[in-house]
Structures are given as structure tokens and as C-alpha cells.
## 1
Amino acid sequence: MLAYSYVERGKFALLEKPVPSLQDSRDALVRVTLSSICTSDLHIKHGSVPRAVPGITVGHEMVGVVEQVGADVVSVRPGDRVAVNVETFCGECFFCRQGYVNNCMDSMGGWALGCRIDGGQAEYVRVPYADCGLTRIPEGVSDEQALFVGDLLATGFWAARISEIKEEDTVLIIGAGPTGLCTLQCVRALHPRKIIVCEQSEERLRFVHEHYPDVLLTTPENCASFVLSHSRYGGADEVLELGGTEDSFRLSWACARPHAIVTIVALYARPQVLPLPDMYGKNLIFKTGGVDGCDCAELLTLISQGKIDTTPLITHRFPLSRIEEAYRLFENREDGVLKVAISMG
């Protein structure tokens, strides 16, 4: 089969590899029908993910059809269309029982697919702990509609959930990249009083205005004053930070009202500093960490009900044979790209 693989730092290549085989009674083999490229894949390419194993097939955003299951798999069977979770988790350890599946204590727990074991930018993928890592796609939901359920949408849903958003609240979302746009959809599903999106890119601001005209828009240089003028208690009730820069981190706490919740979704290239003397008296609650992607079934239900639709994020489509072209486009942010869908046909 064809598989896009991490050869060495700075180099990916489309290689011929054997079809994976089951290694455990809880594994499933999935024939990938649609995959996507994530910024985390670029981090692997450029050596920013030390745990990534050279030689592995990359890719952790995918949907497909179950081809084979191990003897102990009960939730899916061959022929089922499934969304694949970005995280591998056992469902049985302390953290899994609390719903903190990103911290699964199993040796394969956390982000394994496309990082430590072969992922889904390939024709087939082996999924460990298939009962936890695979979710059946409902009838009427297309592959493109389900493509981001296991990663981007799971991240947005997790961020919205832990932010404790209420209907009377004003919510600030910093960053309108693909993850920010998925987070926006999940926040909108909670119906807060106001949603403000802060974004530097005029192109992305236009996208938000076109698809979500009820959302208020601002830019980083105007964000603090804009939020102040559109909130009741001196700032946003909840801030979700997806920008990933020093400036966006500063805005996240500066634009929050006293006793607000600040949810850090972004990954940063270097440590950030909390200037506690400047923050004194705001009594903020910070929530941080990786996505706990255990709500995929609920997300697919919301999609089937028409309450969430991320297909507008797919701006470009390529076959697997042209995946290098897709990577160049995505990495260089050319032609208004947001997300790329990679078909295996």
C-alpha cells in the first residue's frame, strides 16, 4: 500500500509499505477513505516532536471503513464506517475512567497514531484499542462531514466544555485557524450571549463573517478595547486561546474579566510568563492541556442533526498520489487554504 512517511528530519516521502496486520485482540484494521493534514504533522517534519519515530506513516485525522477486528473488539465490525480518534486510550486506567483520556497510562496512550506508530495518510491503518479509538459514523453523515471529529472538533468540543460557558456569557476566542474555527462551532452550539473572535488575518476574518455573521470580530491591536466595550463586567467571561503566540497569550488574560476562565488550547514554541503583579486581583482560573477526545459520538450526533458543519473548512482536495503537493500548499498557506482532504482513491 502507499503510505506517506517520516523519513528523517525535514523529509517525508510517499513509500510502498505492507498492509498492517492486527497485533492485539483489541486492534482493528481500517481502510482509510479520507485523511487530512494537521499542523502537528509539520511539527514532526521539522523535528519539533522528539517522540516521533522515523519511518512511521504520518497522519492522525482520518475516517474509513473497518476491514478486520480482533477477537475482543465489540463496538465495531467489518463494514462499519468510522471516525478515528487522534488519541489512543485503554478506557480502563485511572485517567481514562475520569475522562482524561489524553493521559492514558497505557504505553500506547495519548498521541500515538502518526507519531509513535503508523498513522492514516495511507491506504490502511491499524488502530489499537479499537473500542475506544473508533466511532461509527451515522447514516447520512458523509466522510467529509466526519473528517475532523477525532481531532480538530474533539479539541474544540473539549475546550468549550471545560470553559464552563453559560448562556448569559460573553466568550472571546483568540485565533481563527482550523482549530479555532472548530472551537467556534462548538462554542456556538452552547448559545452564549456574545461570541467575539480575535484574528489578525483579513482572509480568516472574512471567512468567519461569511459563515457565522452573528459572531463579533476584532483584531489583536483592537481586542482589549473591543472586548471591554462588548462585555458587562470588565472583560470576557471565558477566553479560549488558540493563537499560540506571546501576544495572544497576553491578550488571553488581559481581556478576561475578574474570576474568568482562561482556557489555553494553543501550543507554544517557548515558555510563557505569567506576570502575576500585573494580574493581581483578577483571580483568574487557567485551564490547560491536551484534548481529551472522548466525545466523538456526541459530535457525530450534532453533525447528523445539522448543528455542526465543518465541511466549509475543506478548501482543497487531493488524491494520496499528490500528497506532497498538498503539503506544500498547506505548509505555505497558499491559495487561501484552511484544511486539505486527502482521498485514497
## 2
Amino acid sequence: MRREIPRRESPKDQYKINERIRAREVRLVGDNVEQGVYSIFQALKMAEERELDLVEISPNAVPPVCKIIDYQKFLYQQKKKQKEQKAKSVKVVVKEIRFGPQTDDHDYNFKLKHARGFLQEGAKVKAYVFFKGRSILFKEQGEVLLLRFANDLEEFGKVEQLPVLEGKRMIIMLSPKKAAASTAPAAKPKVIKKPSEESPKEENGDNEAEKE
């Protein structure tokens, strides 16, 4: 027997409209109708009189909740709303930095420089020490290395998760620091008067003193 593959639901199939609504009664809501419970025939007639669609928006309610609206316009608004929500959601980027339990200074500084750049770009940094075989005996050394790493990046990132051993890896997580905006009021520039800007009254006063 041939198995039927379920068809993926398109946005137009998410809501029952007009004659596809099977309930005997529906609750109408919205601004363009008197809200209340109507028979499906009354609700369809009201939608037809307004040249709009009867759309079932809450099928699990008893009775189902419907609106009399322009269905195509309704779908457009729903799609637009989803796009706006997606645009507002912040995508978190996580960059990984791998160390060995006995990483030398040259390799350490190279990876430190990369991590600093990742944090400045706004990405999180997941640094870990990978232990091969018997090197797991040096797990304390790996922890010291990760704490040193976090300390060297203190200006750019804050520790989100302290070193923790997961299987053969000891992991630390750093998140970028946001630059704090300065709240101190700006100093007023000091105005230095030029000789030509001196008050004429002062000059007259000096002359009178000289005459005396």
C-alpha cells in the first residue's frame, strides 16, 4: 500500500475560512461587528454583506472564535509581523578557542588576540582545554590557563561560565562587555576675552584714575 506523505501546511491553510468552518455556532469578535455568539449561517451572511471573509482565529475555543476581515490583508499583516519579530531577535554568535593543557606563550598570545577581536565584534567566546589520554591528569593546569585567559580579557569580556569539565574538555564561556556610555556632564569651554572685547566702562574708569 502506498504511503501518503503529509503535505506541508502553507500559511493560507493555517486558518479555516468561510464554508470550511464546520462549527454550528461561532463567537464573533472585532470592531466591525456586534460581538456575540451567532449561528454559522448568520456569521457567513454578515461576512458576505460586508464583502469580507469569516476567519476562524481560535478553533479550540467553545464556540470557535471568528473575525470578519479581509483574509488576504490579514495574511499579509501576519507575515509582516513575523518578519519584524525575526528582525528584532538577536542572533548570538559563539566563537570557539581551543587550547592544549601545555600551550606555549606564543600560541596562547595568538589565540588571545583572536578572542579579543571576537569579543569586540560582539561575539561570545567559548574557550576550552582539550585533554588527550593521560593529559587529563593536568586538569588543574588547564583550569589555571582558562582563568588566566579570562583575566587577560577582563577589559573586553565578562565570565559567563567558570571553567567546568565536560568529558575531555574543560570549558569557560565569555560574553562581550558593552561599552558604558559616559554620564558625566561635558565641561563648559573656558572663554578667554581678547583685549578688544574688554568693557569700555573699565577703560574709562582707568583713564579717570590717571587724570586724578
## 3
Amino acid sequence: MARRCVVTGRGTAYGNAVSHSHLKTRRIWKVNIVTKNIFLEDENRWVTVKISTRALRTLRKKGLKAAIKDGGGSLAAIRPKKYVGVKKAVPKQKTKV
């Protein structure tokens, strides 16, 4: 999975490291991403999200859903996962006697 924040959408940035003599070499800046378990009170469930530490401050202020909407992200990142291996109950058919 990409090193990207769910709330802000921030990812790895690229640029040049410029020396004293102005020689330019490529370098990257990685986002400080942490994996957090957050409780959604309205849905009564825990959600695991990868979020930047900068966005954690926003989360405490606004809440997860509001922060994602304001940041331009998608709520699809926190939707419940499909249950693997669980089958739907099939209604029993009536038999003629």
C-alpha cells in the first residue's frame, strides 16, 4: 500500500538536495505516517487508518469523517470490509407433502 495519508492525501514528495556549490542531487521527503485504530461512535465500530501525525491534530478537533470530507478524501477508506468466507443465509424452500 502506498505511503499516503487517508485524511489529507499527502504522500512522498520529491525534489533536489542543493549543496553549498549548488550541485543538485535527487532526494525524497517521506510523510510521517502512523497506523491508528479510531472508534466511530455513530457506527459503533473501530476503524484502522493510516494517517499522518499532522492530520491527527485535525482529527482530535473535527472527528474522522469531517476531517476526511474537509481534506478532500474519500469515505471509502473507512467503509467496512466484506466478510471473507461468510455466506448469506439461504431461505429454506417449502417441500410438498
## 4
Amino acid sequence: MSTKPATSHRPAKEATAISRAALDRQLKAIIADVLGIDSEQADALEPDSGLFGHMPELDSMAVAGLLTEMEDRLDIVIEDDDVDGEMLETYGGLLAFSEAKLTER
């Protein structure tokens, strides 16, 4: 029997620095999972790729699910005041928003 203490699956907040490339991969995986699209379609998203209003899968109900999943997987808090059309207009906007939220922690 091991005497090691149980560890959380989430790293300590101080150790949660994530590279832009890793965040990009994680955000695309979240988008694919929430919207039910192929990972290839999510991987093809570029900074100027349109999201809300451009992807039929991303309707208002999917936005709520996307933001909730981002909070859970990225360990961030998204306030109602944080959500605007600009952050959801393009993939680059959503990525920049996610980066900003990660640095706020």
C-alpha cells in the first residue's frame, strides 16, 4: 500500500502557466467537444476564423455550454460582464480572451 498522499488532477495555481500553443490546442478541443464538430474542423480554425454568426453549430445555447466548459477545463471564471460579441466574433478573439483570463488567476 502506497503512503503517497492523494494528489489533485489540477496543478497548483502557481504552476498553471500554459503556452499559447497548448492553450490553442486545448481551446480547439473544447470547441470540437462542445459543438460536436470533427477535430479536423476545429484544428483548421485560424485567428480570423469567424465563430458566432459564422458557425451554425455555435448558437446562443452552444455559447453557454462553451463558456461553461472553458471555465471547467481552463480553471477560469467568466463573469457575465466579460462576455461580448467581440470575444466570440473570431477564434483569435476567443483565444486572446482565454489568455487574458488565465493571466488574471
